[in-house]
Design goal:
Keywords: Methyltransferase, S-adenosyl-L-methionine, Transferase. It contains 17 helices and 11 strands. By secondary structure, the protein is an alpha/beta fold. The N and C termini lie far apart (about 60 Å). It binds S-adenosylmethionine (SAM).
Amino acid sequence: MDVIVGQVTALAEGASEATRKSILNALRDLSYKLESPDDTINRLWSGQVTIAVVRVGINLKIFEHLASSGKPLTMKELATLTNADQTLLARILRTLAGYGVIKENGINEFARTNISDTLSRPGDIAAIKHYFDICGPSYQELPAWLEKRGYKNPTDPNDTPYHSAFNTTQNLFEYMIEDGAAIENFNVYMTARRQNQKTWVHEYPMKDDIDLTNPNISPHGVLFVDVGGGVGHQAAEFRAAYPDLQGRVINQDIPTSIAQAETLPSAGIEHIVYDFNMPQPVKGAKYYYLRMVLHDWPDGKCITILQNQIGAMAEDSIILVDDMVVPNHGVPWQVAQFDIAMMAAGSAMERTEAQWDGLYEAVGLRVLRRVVYTPGVCEAVTALVRK
Ligand SMILES: C[S@@+](CC[C@H](N)C(=O)[O-])C[C@H]1O[C@@H](n2cnc3c(N)ncnc32)[C@H](O)[C@@H]1O
């Protein structure tokens, strides 16, 4: 068995991202093939328990302690570090070890793994908090909610599983803002998402839109507006990739996110409060960039958001929509899962190419080009101009 594990590991190590993902899928399919019905049921309900005990582990900083200690830790050491009751801790640790999140080295001794290391990183901790605390109750609500509404595809952003789960009339962002910690956590997650990986900035052929040999390309003064940009991490990536290009780089979001952005280092970027339900106040920018904004909303609301940008466009302005483009078949599970998350939180969706193009057609935009920059999870930047 060790030989096979060694061979598969070696195969995955030098492989492209696409090959690595197909190896993971093949291993999953193999593991499913070996399951008894009992195994299948246990695996399915372990999904909820895994994220619940991981959430406890995050609260107790178990993964951070294991990552920073540089050596395995005994139960006693972990009890001292976490201040948790030893009997309780033993139950949590054995579950985490059973799921392979941490490693049980011997009796009452635990060690880090690549999984627990991931769970010690601030951006990944923020992701788990968001998916468990905010999305979790909405998924729990989803089956009954869909049944009650006769299995119609959800299109009302004010009536979603999330609204029922949280018994609120506020949308998800309003809810997280009122909570305070939730929106701050969400922004940490969004900033860290795909950090240190190749992003759209490196893949999009900017040279086809602007003369990169002539830095003075922005006669209108504004080069790039990140609409709904959170704390401005994509605006920062853009600025870092094109430090010499003339023109303002602006990040826009709701007041809480802009206040958070202003506490972070962001050289060369301006932060402006802007509600995308209102006309865009920054006129004639070269680019209006929206990453993972439109996937939060159903078509009607996307049309409003796009129209609000179109009103500000100059002749040579381009809208860049950075979102997943769902293939017509063989949809990676990571993409399908995002779609369900958008459904539960906002009656929104991840869209196919035809669904996106229908939206652009409806507001009088023409697709100039579409650049898929992470084939494994179907993320693409679509450049749009006025017809
Ligand atoms: C899924 S996040 C994407 C953030 C960022 N573009 C990124 O890719 O990391 C959606 C963003 O839309 C912002 N947002 C929500 N409602 C908004 C509104 N009415 N006006 C402007 N921004 C809004 C949120 O605060 C959040 O930053």
